[in-house]
Amino acid sequence: MKFNILTLFPEMFSAVTGSILGRAAENGILEFNFINIRDFSTDKHKKVDDYPFGGGQGMVLMADPVFRALEALGKQSHGRMLYMSPRGRILDKEKIMELSGEQEITILCGHYEGIDQRILDHWHMEEVSIGDYILTGGELAAMVLIDTVSRLLPGVLASAEAAMEESVYSGLLEYPQYTKPREYRGMEVPEVLVSGNHRLIRLWKLEEALKLTREARPDLFEEFVMKAEELPKDEQKVLEKILK
Ligand code: ADE
């Protein structure tokens, strides 16, 4: 998957191009193409923003440097065109899965109070939000999108981690995890996890996941209960116990 990222702050993206996604880029699974919008300003002071027509707070990113930056990508398609904005549709599990099927995604990161609407209209940009709060710019939001979409691509995560995604526990929050040592400062690892009984371990994980989900995300818990008949009999018993 290729990401074209138009930003005024390309250096911010070192936060995602290191570690796991950096390795994926070295392995050819991901490709990052950063475009500094300021490089496409024709102004002698490299200005990219101006006051809004009609008045109002703050500055607006001008159309011309963004048009030039997109045109410099070449004639071919730029894939999905996204603009990170609190005005957009929320980036949820469905949207993330949909985007993970793309070959190329072009992301525009805004700054200032907004961007000239003609950019969005002409390039048919889809606005995407990561939540109902305002960030100072689109970069952090773009990094969230890139990270969560990339981890779904085959080969980005180690297989064990990727398998979690498809486990029977999807739809529930994750159960608590423990590693060595078995006892730490008087705190013991739950006995069942070291019992070697795989059936009991599976049921314990389910029970813990159910309790955590009911507490923190009653909405997800409700949804899970609705499709309980798809569960194996022994897991249905665990759910019944929780519901009592
Ligand atoms: N830019 C500023 N706030 C944002 C948000 N919540 N989501 C996406 N882009 C943004």
Key words describing this protein structure:
elongated, binds adenine, alpha/beta, 2 domains, Alpha/beta knot, 244 residues
Question: What does this entry look like structurally?
Answer:
The protein has 244 residues and is α/β, with parallel strands linked by helices. The longest helix has 19 residues, at 198-216. The strands form three sheets. It has a five-stranded parallel sheet with strand order 2-1-6-5-8. A three-stranded mixed sheet has the order 3-4-7. It has helices at residues 14-17, 19-26, 63-72, 93-99, 117-122, 139-150, 159-166, 198-216, 218-226, 233-243, and strands at residues 2-7, 31-36, 49-50, 60-61, 80-90, 104-109, 114-115, 126-129, 183-184, 187-188. The chain folds into two domains: 2-159, Alpha/beta knot, CATH 3.40.1280; 166-243, Trp Operon Repressor, Chain A, CATH 1.10.1270. Helix 8 packs across helix 9 (218-226) and helix 8 (198-216) runs parallel beside helix 10. It is 39% helix and 18% strand. The chain has ten helices and ten strands. The protein binds adenine. The site of adenine (ADE) has 11 residues, from strand 5. The site of adenine has 11 residues, from strand 5.
